[in-house]
Amino acid sequence: MSAQTIRIASYNIRKAIGTDRRRNPERIIAVLAELDADIIALQEADRRFGPRIAAIPPMLLDHHSDYKPAPLNVQTDSIGWHGNAILVRKSAQIVMSDIIHLPYLEPRGAVVAHVDFGHAELRLFGMHLDLSGLWRRKQAAAVIHAYGLNNEIPTLLAGDLNEWSAARGCLADFGRHFHFAPCGRSFHAQRPVAQLDRIMHCGQLELLDCGVHDSILARRASDHLPIWADVRLK
User: Fold this and answer.
1) Tell me: the pLDDT tens digits for 157-173?
2) CA-based, 20 to 30 A from 1: which of 106, 197, 208, 233?
């Protein structure tokens, strides 16, 4: 990649439980190294019950990866908010990061980070939307509203949208404001049949390339394969 290119990724890590039903955060970190993205939206990044501790221990992430979590300061032992987290390269500067409250039937949320990479700045929204189509559309509206409060910053959205339809529901709602990267099918990791994971970008960014990271390791690390997109400022 050129110095002007930024690689974004989205990855539902399923609380670091692989398709072999074993919890192995080291394996997730190895997949992140394969991806070599500059900024990553994670879903299911903390455990579902109890104190919601991080699925990837922060010390492990710090010592064995090139990434740091965008600080959210809402849960003591977690790197995320309702499972959503954003990782950025340690060399990048996090200008701002925050949580976004979403309407929900089951507990859901979104996160956002404004990051300065030196040669470019951008903002990323990370999300994991509801299983219900009606609530997905309400949640999409909340994210779009948050974007509209400051749409001058080049912006990407990424996450597990839980939308099986090709271009309806929340996909149509997002499509009125953003361009979709045609990454491909990422679920189920061992036999991908659905595009549940999505990356979107605003008109200030140009999509250069995108895809699904389908490696032997990724097929075992989670039930989702990570997706990625290379972008640059127009």
Assistant:
1) 999 999 998 778 999 99
2) 197
